[in-house]
Amino acid sequence: MAGSKVASMRDAVAELVRDGDTVAIEGFTHLISFAAGHEIIRQRKRDLTLARLTPDLIYDQMVAAGVARKLIFSWLGNPGVGGLNAIRRRIEDADPAPLEIEEYSHFGMVGRYTAGAANLPFYPLRSYFETDMPVANPLIRPIESPYGDGVVYAVPPLRPDVTIVHAQRADARGDTQAWGLLGCQKEAAFAADRVIVVVEELVDEAVIRADPNRTIIPGLIVDAVVVEPFGAHPSYVQGTYDRDNRFYRDWDPISRDEAAIQAWLGEWVYDLDGRAAYTERFGAERVAALQPSGTAPSGSVDYGRYG
Q1: Would you say 86 and 50 are in contact if contact means Cβ atoms under 8 Å apart?
Q2: What is the pLDDT of residues 72-122, one digit of tens each?
Q3: Among 50, 134, 240, 266, which residue's beta carbon has the most beta carbons within 10 A?
Q4: Mean pLDDT within 150-156
C-alpha cells in the first residue's frame, strides 16, 4: 500500500541502526524488543551506546556479544533474580574490554528523554537530594531555580539516534498502539532521530481509527514497522503472552560463565536467521504455556458520529 513502512527486521536494523549510534530499546519490564536486540547482535553492530531504563537481559546479551561501548541506564539487574553478569564483568574487570557507564534514576532517564523530545537544554528534578548519584555522575548538576525557590538538579537531554519499541499492533504507516504497563516509549521515540516499531500484529488503519486514544506513537515519526510475533519474549506482551520467569532464572547461571553465554548466543542468535526460527526452536509447548488462559477484554467507549 502507498506509504507503507513495513520492513523485515533484517532490513530495518541494517538500514536504521549504524555503528557508533546511541540506541534505545524501551519498554518497562513489559514490551521489550528482544527480537531487535538479537538482530543487532546478529548483524554484528559495533561501538553502540545503549540507553534504557532497567537494562534487563537483552542488554546483558548485547554487551556480551560486543556491540556496546557505553551504557546509559537506571537500575541495572535481572529483575527478581539478581545481577546482569556480562555487564558486571565489563564494568568491574574490563573483561574482555571496559564498558563506559552513565547512571541516573528512573525519573532522571524519563526527564532526559522528555528534554530530548521537547528540544530543551535540560530537565529539572528535585529527586536527587540526599543521594550520592550526583557525585557518581557529574552530568547530574545542581542549578539555582530562575524563580527563586532554591536549588534543583538538572539532567541533560537524551536524543537517541534510534529508538526501538515493541507494541501489540500498528498499521502499515506506523501508527502504533500499546496497552498494559507502559514506560517511556513515547518520550524516547519523540526524542530519537529514527524510530523502529516492532509489533505482534499488523492491522488495518480502520482498527487504529476506531480506538485512537490507544495510539502511543504516531506514524509520522516512525521509519519502519516490523511484524515480529513473540518478539518480546522473555518479557511479556499484555493479552498475548506472559513473562517467562523461568527464562529469567535460567539466565543467571548462563551469564555468570563467559563460555556459557557465548554458547547461548551461538545457539539462540547467531545460528538462527530470525525470530520465527527462535520461536520454533523454543518449542510450541513452552510457547503455549505462556498464552493467556482466557480473555479479559477492556470496556468500550462511544466516540460518537458527527456530521
Answers
A1: no
A2: 999 999 988 999 999 999 999 998 999 999 999 999 999 999 999 999 999
A3: 50
A4: 96
Rounded CA-CA distance 234/248 in Å is: 7
Given a contact cutoff of 8 angstroms between Cβ atoms, the answer to whether 202 and 227 are in contact is yes
- Mapped onto helix, strand or coil, the DSSP state of residue 125 is strand
- Nearest alpha-carbon partner for 103 in 52, 37, 38, 29: 52
**What's the CA dihedral at 30, 56, 114, 17 to 10 degrees?**
-100
Residue 239's pLDDT band (cuts 50, 70, 90): very high
- pLDDT per residue as tens digits for the range 3-46: 899 999 999 999 999 999 999 999 999 999 999 999 999 999 99
- SS3 breakdown of the chain: % helix, strand, coil, rounded to 5? 35, 20, 45
**Whole-number Å distance between alpha carbons of 75 and 91:** 15
Work out the burial of residue 54: count CB atoms within 10 Å of its CB; fewer than 13 is exposed, 13-18 middle, 19 or more buried: buried
Phi/psi at 67 (nearest 5 deg)? -85, -20
CA nearest to 56, candidates 70, 75, 69, 38:
75
Distance CA 227, CA 201 (A): 6
Dihedral pair phi/psi, residue 18, rounded to 5°: -120, 150
Residue with cell 556459557: 260
- Residue 147, C-beta contacts closer than 8 angstroms, at least 6 positions apart: none
Nearest Cα neighbor of 266 from 136, 111, 258 is 258
**Angle 26-27-31 from CA coordinates, rounded to 5°:** 125
Residue with the three cell numbers 515480529 = 228
Q: pLDDT (tens digit, 9 = 90+) per residue, 166-224?
A: 999 999 999 999 999 999 999 999 999 999 999 999 999 999 999 999 999 999 999 99
Residue-level length of the chain? 307
Provide the pairing of β-strand 176-177 with 162-170: antiparallel
Which helix (H) or strand (E) element contains residue 280? Answer: helix 275-282
Residue 157 has pLDDT above 80, yes or no: yes
